[in-house]
Task: inverse folding
């Protein structure tokens, strides 16, 4: 059997590390998944069905890990800043589930997801001149988080109207 070139095996190991970081964040956030409390909330008609979340997030998490690897492999002077943004979005991402589902604090969830949107956008803009691939890999993530932000805001508005 042919051996992988050293660069390929190194990239596979690095990708597994980035994927593991993303999986750890997903695991942390997943501890507070949609329960009866969430199901009972008043949500807009355009709320996606529950079965859609796992495949969408799986694809997004793989793309997030790939973007991390691409940035890691760059020698650009912005590499440190980009890795900082990458790590920050991962932390802010995982905290949203804790705030929204764990603490049942819809308003704090909205603040968190708006922060997440800003960090993702900053990553995209900062990565563009360094690696268009890393930037493009984050674009579907920004679209999904934009949608999720609107959903979070709508749920908060509905909850305030009921209070």
Result:
């Amino acid at each position: 059997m042919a051996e992988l070139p050293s660069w390929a095996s190194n990239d596979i190991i690095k990708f597994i590390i980035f994927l593991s970081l993303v999986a750890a964040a997903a695991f942390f956030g997943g501890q507070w998944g949609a329960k009866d409390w969430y199901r009972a909330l008043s949500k807009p008609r355009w709320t996606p069905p529950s079965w859609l979340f796992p495949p969408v997030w799986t694809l997004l998490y793989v793309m997030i890990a790939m973007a991390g690897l691409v940035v890691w492999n760059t020698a650009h002077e912005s590499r440190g800043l980009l890795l900082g943004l990458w790590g920050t979005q991962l932390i802010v991402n995982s905290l949203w589930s804790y705030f929204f589902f764990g603490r049942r604090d819809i308003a704090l969830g909205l603040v968190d997801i708006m922060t997440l949107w800003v960090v993702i956008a900053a990553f995209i803009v900062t990565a563009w001149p360094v690696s268009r691939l890393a930037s493009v890999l984050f674009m579907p993530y920004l679209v999904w988080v934009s949608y999720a932000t609107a959903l979070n805001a709508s749920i908060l508005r509905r909850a305030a109207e009921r209070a």
